[in-house]
Amino acid sequence: MIIPRPLTLILALSLCATPLLSQENRTIPLETPVQSKGTVSFVLHTDRPYSSGGPEADFEQILFRLPNLASCSIQRTYSAILLSLDWESAPDHRGYHLFLPELPGPEEYHVQFTWDAQEGLSQGYFNGLPFRYEDPGYYHGPWDLPEAATELITPVGPNRISDVSVLARSISDDDAKDNTPPHLRGRNQSLIHGLELPPPIDLMGRKGELLYESAMDTPQSLEGWVVEGPGIMDFVDGSVVLHSAIPRPSDGSTGNFNIWVPLEFPDSIIVDWDFKPFTDSDVAHFFFAARGRGGEDIFGSSLAPRDGHFQQYINGDIDNYYVIYFLNRALTRTTNLTRSGLFKSIGAAVLSLGSVGIPPGEKTWHSLRMIKDGGHIQLQVDGKVVLDGGDPGTERWGPVLGGGHLGFRQMARTMAAYRNLRVWEIR
């Protein structure tokens, strides 16, 4: 339903037709303080296009503040464009973060943030589309917002906002859709997740030689594999179960680990494997096209040793791509990163976002296929495309990565089984 105007706090400012940002900061008092429950919506007017990657300089602008409660910002980094709402009164609780590869402009976008801290519910909306879709397997829980906001401040900046509304209650998905201006509803949906994905890549006549095969069911089947970090292999029911020796990290260890196939593979490959999670928490990655910055083998003596700390793989001396296909962390409560994603090593740049890969809570086997056809990369789960994107090989993210090593990464609290790894070349 459409939210009645009497519930909207006094932020109309000339019937919301005039942008709130002018030549000076504006302070607008709220009729009712906002605290543990609330909703803020606005139209963002970007001054120019923003994109991740190089060589553009990093940028951050505060769009508004609710003093003592929260602040909203737009940020450009090498990794992604972020539209965020961060709590000022609950610094230990992550706010909302919408990760985008780019944000075209000048353009208008309708943004909504809603929360009920006592119920542990929070959501964001981009042109009426939720940042992420609810799933009972994702972690939820209450948090405390000890301070209330009694006013809203809009600082001056190159990007401006208009049509601001603040409510002292949370809203539903249907409310958010109804509140979105019709001309913006559903617009630019491809920016936040892959709702419309293409069919599987046609490999008819192109599937070449089987380059590598491992049942992943015995120590002998994984002979020569390299473990970096506190990873443990157990062999159960025709599969290898990977888990961390430090599932609750402390004393500087992350508890995370990588496990690498000892062979290098060519530029264009098909990789199949089976995956079954035993836990609901944390992250599973698949790394590929991994080589040293100068083209070295990643196990070469000239490269720095690695022990599972993530920065060694994204800001160290190796290049790689990686896909995330299983994800459930506290961060996922309020971001669009519950979905599968394709990333490039330096700065963990977001290249493409897809749909949900393997939802938490499922304890069954899933068949995965990753296709790297030059710069075109596709991920399939149980025959369904969940991610389709790639690397254009431009100045933005640098040259397309070619061949290299592949392997798996798990975070500390994840336990999962793997089996039936096979790698083919693509003609």
Molecular structure report:
With 427 residues, the chain is mainly β. 3% of the residues lie in helices and 44% in strands.
The whole-number mean of residue pLDDT values reads 89
Alpha-beta content class: mainly beta
Large-scale geometry: globular
The secondary-structure element order is EEEEEEEEEEEEEHEEEEEEEHEEEEEEEE
Low-confidence stretches: 1-22
Count of strand segments: 28
Main beta sheet: 8 strands, antiparallel
C-alpha-based Rg, rounded: 23 Å
- What is the helix content? under 10%
Number of helices: 2
Quick synopsis:
The protein has 427 residues and is an all-beta fold.
Secondary-structure map with pairings?
Blueprint: E1 26-34, E2 37-46, E3 50-51, E4 59-66, E5 70-76, E6 81-87, E7 96-100, E8 102-103, E9 107-116, E10 121-126, E11 129-130, E12 149-154, E13 160-167, H1 173-179, E14 207-214, E15 226-228, E16 231-236, E17 239-244, E18 257-260, E19 269-277, E20 282-292, H2 311-314, E21 318-328, E22 341-344, E23 349-353, E24 366-373, E25 376-381, E26 384-390, E27 405-410, E28 416-426
Antiparallel strand pairs: 1-12, 2-9, 2-13, 3-8, 4-5, 5-6, 6-7, 9-10, 10-11, 14-28, 15-18, 16-17, 17-28, 18-27, 19-24, 19-28, 20-21, 20-27, 21-22, 22-23, 24-25, 25-26
What keywords describe this structure?
mainly beta; disordered N terminus; single chain; 427 residues; 44% strand; 7-stranded antiparallel sheet; 2 helices
